[in-house]
Amino acid sequence: MSKNENSKSLLKSGLVLSVMTLASRIMGLVREMTRASFLGTSMYSDAFTTSFMIPNLLRRLFAENSISVAFIPTFKDYLEKSNDENKSDQEKLAARRETQEFLKATFTLISFLTACVVVLGIVVTPFIAQIFCKKPVDASSMDFSLWEMKKEEITILTRIMFPYLMVISIAAFFQGILNGCKIFAPSGFTPVLFNGIVILGTYILSPFTENPARAMSIGVITGGCIQALFQLPFVLKTGWKVGVTSLKNTFSNPGTKRVIALIGPTIIGMAAYQINDLISTALASRAEVGVVSSLQFSLRLQELILGIFAVSIGTVILPDLSGLASKKEWEKFNSMLVQAIKIITLITIPVTFYSLICGNELITLLYRNKRFDEHSVMLTTGEFRYHIAGLFFIAVNRIISPAFYAQGNTKLPTLAGIISMICNMIFAIVLVTPMSGNGIALALSLASAVNTVFLFIFLGKMQSINIKKVTFDTIIYIFRITAFSLIAATPCKFLRPLLLEKFQNYPRLISQGVPIALLAVIFGLIGVVLLVITKDDMAQALKKKIKR
User: What span, in angstroms and rounded, lies between the C-alpha atoms of 82 and 181?
Assistant: First the structure.
């Protein structure tokens, strides 16, 4: 496959998954708008954010991390053996039986481990809740009553949502099977269902609960169950069965042994990540009321773009990179990696510049209401500007990591992650006092940049990677797109106050929406003209794909 064919294939798969992910991220944004409408940046909103974070952190270990790092590459190897044209029908049948046993063992492993963690988590939740509540010195004060109320609410909400870890891990396992078979659409659609159920649950159940946060929590666990159930028919359609086996067979299966060996190093990295996130959230909880929630509202906007492109492309290229690595086709491997990085650069750097200009208007348009007041807008806007500064680094990290995973190397990206997380903790502790929530947001962006630097350094240790070419092509393309973005942003910067003044007396949808749209059109047109004039290779490939 040529370089251009590599690029077109990647764009084709990426665009298909991006459409599904776009719908899911939009629904996720609507979910956050619903939370802003019902809870604002109140104590209950902070409690929900903290409670959802706890099982969500563990989900990254048991679901996203395990599936992407260990399961998909291992499953891909089993598929290669069962589809090997050089083998006899009897050998293929034996390989298929081995694959089926591996799937049963992996399903049992995930179910057993997550069930144990859920039970333990529900028991120790009251002790966890205290980490996120700053206890007042005076036991007779109003602050002490609020502390008790917040701690109790975090405990209740966390216990409601902790089983989400188990069902979403099973859903991720189903996704791993589908993605290994290069079926992406069903898994891309399940987050749409999840967010829709959370939104509906909030509106329907809020009148019957003490506060809307509990209604949202019930929606979370219900949505997680449906994410798993929705994918099951598509998994069965592939011909692979889902079942359980004994724990003895589970831990003795060669495939699960390999999965555990691959996950092992990343557990250390994920533990560092969890400690880091816990510290950041605890610092935010103790800064002032609303900071925990405003940080999440800010991150939701960042993740809207990040999820559409970085996660989509990362998901698409992992099976392909794994296949190329198993065949030792390193030239194609390097070509696909460079093309993926270029696509991410083409998207995230312009989005960063535009978001820095229109961040306040975006947040006002999306979240502003009676409960999400001007103070909430101010908190979220400040944090968003620091979060969005790290968009490129976070996105490119999710593209580079599969290059390691595809070759069965989890140690180097884990080490980079540990270094990044240590930096994040240090930055957050240093910056939270002078900058409050803005400092925590800036710490994440700085740590993401550190992670990117070390990932590139470690890529140089892989003999299969032409690090000079990858680094040179990446840096040149970054400078080009940064220059184009700066040129496009300049007129928008000067036009912004004029447009805001022109439409200030209209309702919010017009007063904020029209300037946002007009500036986006101006920014986009200038950028497209610059790409066309310079005959940018990625833009040309994207143009042909859209025309078709």
Answer: 12
